[in-house]
Amino acid sequence: MSKRTHQQQLAARKAKRQAEREAERRRQKRNVTITITAIAAVVVVIVGVFVVFGVGGDDKSPTAAPSELPSSAGPDNKPKSIPTAMAAAPKRATPLAAQVNCTYKKSTEPASKKVNPPADGKTKASGTSKVSLDTSVGDLQLTLDSSLAPCAVKNFLSLVGQKYFDNTKCHRLTVGEGLQVLQCGDPTGSGSGGPGYSFADEVLPTLKYGRGTLAMANSGPNTNGSQFFIVYGDASGLTPQYTAFGTIDEPSLKLIDKVAQAGVTPQNGPQDGTPVIPVEIKTATAAA
């Protein structure tokens, strides 16, 4: 073997190792970005500094302190309790313009499942759309709100129409205090998959993520793609850096409660991993 050929082989192996490390870094970053604020919230409680999340109200208000759904005491991989009071649907204090401009940029990562991005251009910033997820644990009913995040809604409906979510698993469940979400939308099931493009955040600075909120997962600013999460319980540890684009109804949340109470198979800590009861999206359908 010539010296030149040997050097080329060494360079190729080095490039492959670097690519593998970068892929793993991206996967871990996507997971950590949703958990880090919850960890910080726990630290705050430990040192005795108390921060109140949410909006005050009387006992009849949907934003008042929620009642709790008890879970069997024991393993750390199950929630100690799950708030059962529905949060108020997110609203913008100042409405968006009648139309906004949406842009979907090709990413450096290939699509996990072949799909076309939505068309760039003006998008109506009002109205709601219904989407039904037929899953292995029952039907989950979503309401997408274009007055909150028109570009995210347009993207989600485009993915539904192209059957991107069909036959995919919700790969992540978190059950700790401050972070109780079910995360879906990655055809690879690894937590690093996406549609091969990204779009900008549509965040609300005053947003509180409560039971019933539907939001986009990300791996940093303006990296939205296909992954989304459903808040089924306490998410007071989250800061408003994730695009909320709708809600899920109460009967659907009760189905997710049962999944959460069964616990997780730990991956990113004892309270963060794959759900013990698998949640597979068989089909996703938008109402006509």
Number of strands: 17
Helix fraction, binned, reads: 10-25%
The spatial strand order of the largest sheet comes to 8-17-6-7-14-12-13-10-9-16-15
Oligomeric nature of the chains: single chain
Largest sheet: 11 strands, antiparallel
First-last Cα distance? 65 Å
What is the average of the pLDDT values?
Answer: 84
Globular, elongated, flat, extended or rod-shaped: what is the shape? Answer: globular
Structural class: alpha+beta
Low-confidence stretches: 35-67
Q: Quickly count the helices.
A: 3
Radius of gyration: 20 Å
Query: What fraction of the residues are assigned to beta strands by DSSP?
Result: 25-35%
Write up this protein.
The structure is a single chain. With 288 residues, this protein is of the alpha+beta class. 24% of the residues lie in helices and 25% in strands. The chain contains 3 helices and 17 strands. Strands 8-17-6-7-14-12-13-10-9-16-15 form an 11-stranded antiparallel beta sheet. A hairpin with a 2-residue loop joins β6 (128-135) and β7. The relative contact order is 0.20. Mean pLDDT is 84; it is low at 35-67.
